[in-house]
Design brief:
With 195 residues, the protein is α/β, with parallel strands linked by helices. 39% of the residues lie in helices and 17% in strands.
Length: 195
């Protein structure tokens, strides 16, 4: 199985996340993309009460694509969500052909040397680094350090989870920024009103 993972806080998951995953499916031919919501992101502040909501929203957002899957692997772990440990677990669960591919943005990838067990991690994955449209990046220094990656460039969709949370807290509409079922879930559960 050719596997690609999309890991993140997804607070909330939005249309740009979905478009990235669809782009990867159509351009790279993976059998499956597994969305892995981080339970306790090691590099971010998090609200523990939001963990289950973030998971539920991802599940709703991807339910119509049979090649998208969600994993609760980091929720079962209950500790900090380290990608290296997650990847070891995925290798136990799936019959994986070659390396696992890992969707990541340029800002996060530039910090990859600070990640937990980064030297072991880079042996397990090939990174698909999404760069913004018209962005010029030079990541050769990471290639020289043994990280394997491809640059993925797609039309830029200007949506951020931060902006969505701020819009909700100010009573502004978010229609079109998230899937309809995620929008309904946010309002039904009163999320992000006081962020």
């Amino acid at each position: 199985m050719r596997l690609c993972i999309f890991s993140g806080t997804f607070n909330p998951i939005h249309q740009a996340h979905i478009k990235m995953a669809e782009y990867v499916l159509s351009h790279y031919g993976f059998d499956k993309i597994i969305f892995i919501p981080a339970y306790k992101p090691p590099h971010k502040d998090y609200d523990s009460s939001m963990c289950i909501h973030r998971y539920n929203m991802v599940k709703l957002a991807i339910q119509n694509n049979p090649r998208f899957e969600i994993s609760d692997i980091e929720y079962k772990n209950d500790g900090k969500s380290y990608s290296y440990l997650t990847l070891l677990e995925l290798h136990k669960q799936y019959n994986i052909e070659g390396k696992i591919y890992f969707i990541i943005g340029t800002d996060a990838f530039k910090q990859i040397e600070n990640w937990y067990e980064t030297d072991k991690l880079k042996k397990l994955v090939d990174f698909l680094v999404f760069i913004r449209e018209n962005e010029t990046v030079n990541l050769d220094w990471l290639k020289e350090k043994g990280y394997t990656f491809e640059l993925a460039r797609m039309p830029f969709t200007d949506i951020s989870s931060t902006d969505i949370r701020e819009r909700i807290s100010h009573g502004k509409a978010i229609n079109g920024l998230v899937t309809k079922n995620v929008e309904d879930y946010i309002y039904k559960n009163g999320l992000y009103k006081n962020t």
